[in-house]
# Entry
Amino acid sequence: MVSAEKFFANLSASYGMVKDYEANLTITQGKAVSRGKISYKSPLYLFIRFDEPANQVICFDGEKLTVYLPNEQVVLQQRYKKKTPNQIEALATSQGLALLQRNYSIAYLTGPAAVPLEEGSKEMVVKLKLVARGTTSYSQMIISVKDSLVRRVEGTQSSGDKVVMDFAGIRTNQGVPDSRFVYDAPPYANVIQDWLFDPEQ
# Structure
């Protein structure tokens, strides 16, 4: 039997072979549900364009995180000195998985055998339970793996709130161009710089 730690290490290694991927993304937090499409390119470029909320965007171009909130006509921009944004959206990358290996203990949720993604589902996945070793944004995670790719991430925050991310229709190594990660926010939007922290600190 492959240990959970070894299984997760193999998962991380498989993502190391992924040069890019695109997928349909659904994020559920309480009663709020967001849907859109995610594009990723190694080493750490991300672009998420949402259909719900319409036209909302999350973009990381390797140095700067941009979040466009169309309902408020606000653009949030955060520069990263170390180029490693600690966002849940980045977990399904080789860098994100390596970070989890360092900060979480890893075990099978029920065992190494594949189980239904959820009650009544015919989709079979291997479920891993990750428990934080210290203080983190997410005290616990359940990661569902299908065909050596992350199918679902269920994160429990220290407050007890849960965030569920579903990756469906994943397509790997499609030759996603760099231009996919260039985003020009609407000129009328109010721009707020470095709203999370000073990147030079």
Summary: The longest strand covers residues 162-172. The chain has a mean pLDDT of 88.
